Structure formats: C-alpha cells, structure tokens
Amino acid sequence: MTSTSVPSRSKPLTPLRPGIYAPTMTFFDPVTEDLDIPTIRAHAIRLAKAGLAGLVTMGSNGEAVHLTHEERATVTKETRSALDSAGFSDVPVIVGASEQSIRGTIALIKESAAVGGEYVLLVSPSYYRYAMDEEAITNYYTTVADKSPLPIIIYNYPGAVSGIDLDSDLLIKLAQHPNIVGTKFTCANTGKLTRVALATKALTCNDVKGSSKGYMAFGGMADFTAQTLVSGGSGIIAGGANVAPKTCVKVWTLWREGKKDEAIELQKILSKGDWVLTRTAIPGTKSALQSYFGYGGYPRQPLKRLSAEKVKEVKDLTKELMDVEAKL
Q: Is the pTM of this model over 0.70?
C-alpha cells in the first residue's frame, strides 16, 4: 500500500448498513432527452420508502456515460436533496465516479463530494487494456484512495472493463487500505465474495443497524441475493431493486429472521424475474417501471427503445415477480 492515512473530511459519513442498495436509473424527457428531475427525485423517494439501505447514482444503470459532468452532478444533487426532503437523511448516496486516469477520477470524486455523495464506486480503468496488469490496477486504486475525500467501493464488473476481473487475492490486498471500504461483485463469483468477506471480516445481515465499522461485500445482482447472504456478504447493489425493491428487501429480511427456506423460495421468483431485466438491460428495466409504475421512459440514444412486442414480453415475464412486489 502507498499510504495508511485517510484524507480528512468536513463531516461524519452516513454509515453503510447491511442490506439492499439500488443503482438508480436516470430518467429523461421522452422527446428532448433532457433530465427528468421530478421523476429522478420521486424514484429515489420510492426506493427509500421500500426499505433500501442506500442508493447509487451514476452506476451502470444510471447511464453515466451518456451524461455530461454537469448532468451527473445534477442527478446526484437532486437524489440527495429528494431523500433529505422526504426524511431519509440516513440513506447514503454512493456515486459512480470512474474515469480512465487517476487524475480524472480524483477530480470526479471531488465533484461528487460537492453535491452530496458520501462514497464512490470505481471500476478498473480499461481503455488501454494491454497496460492494465496487477501493478497498474493496484497503483490506480491505492493512489486514488490516498487522495480521495470519499471512501471507495471497488466495482468488479468484467463485462464493462474489457474482461478485467480482479481476483480475491488482489481485492483482499486492496482492502488493507483504510479508504477502500468495500467491493461490488458484479462478476457474480460467490466463491470470490466468500473469500473476500471472510478475510475482511465484512459486515453481514446480523450486524447492528447503523454500524459504521466493517468492510462491505456487495453482491452485484438481485438474482443472487440469498447466495450473497450464504456467502457472508453485506448486501446487494442490484439493478432489479429499481423495479422490485420490496421483494429484494423481503428476501434479506426473511434470511435475517432465520426463515431461510422462505427466503430461498422467494429468491427463486426474484431470480426468474430479475433475469428478464438483466437480459433486456436498461431499456427493459425502464420498460418494466413504465408498465407497472407509470414512469420509466426510455434510455438516451444510441441505446434503442423496445418495440411494443418487447414491452409486452417484459411485462408478461415479470408479472409473477411484480404480483409479489404489489403485495408487500
């Protein structure tokens, strides 16, 4: 490690609690593609009311790559403001703040901190894939952590970074840095999550609510919420929680209460529905929101809008899950 110090902060951070987190969608006017601020705010409040432990802006689901820096800042600022206005000041906002350079990433983290972000989620740089060996990646994360005003959650998402997949040995080594406080495992490797959670003494569903101490080992998809719990994980950051947050929370709660058989049965329904959202990605997730909640709209171009036939398919194939969600 290059440092063992943490940059000073002006105020205490809202603790990361074990539980369910959602990488929030960014909503646009269907004609102009301008940010739809009222919907962004209302969606954040809906998720908090459903019992989510935290929100992530500018994650993969947030279409950060389609937004200007000013727009990214606006989304985070409005999300934080909406939560505070609705009495959810204890719900932290994590911000996706990755750039390809160390300098750019640190600058974006500072921008995120200025608009209400309290933690950042960082993927590995990958544009110059040939140069990204373990030494380069270690240097990236530790140098950023040395200078970042916000704690870092490593985002292990091989599909988004040219196949770079951080192994458990490297993640455990990086976790020794006091300003690196978690990992999101969108690699879906529960064995890796188990090893990292064990080595870092990660928080689990049994830890006291509000604890600010401990590493966070996050599953990266709703369809392995129960599996994350089995692996000793701290929570999930899952796109499916945008659509079915109460179901995700219910799986978590049932497991915590010792009702493991019930949790597993509900996980089966969640996994079946979440796969529809995963394979149709951002357009499909927004389509499901539109079908069941009356908002969602479309992604920014060049992402395509779903056909009417596909919209119906997404609605029909998620009906079982959404029937459960409606009853919770």
A: yes
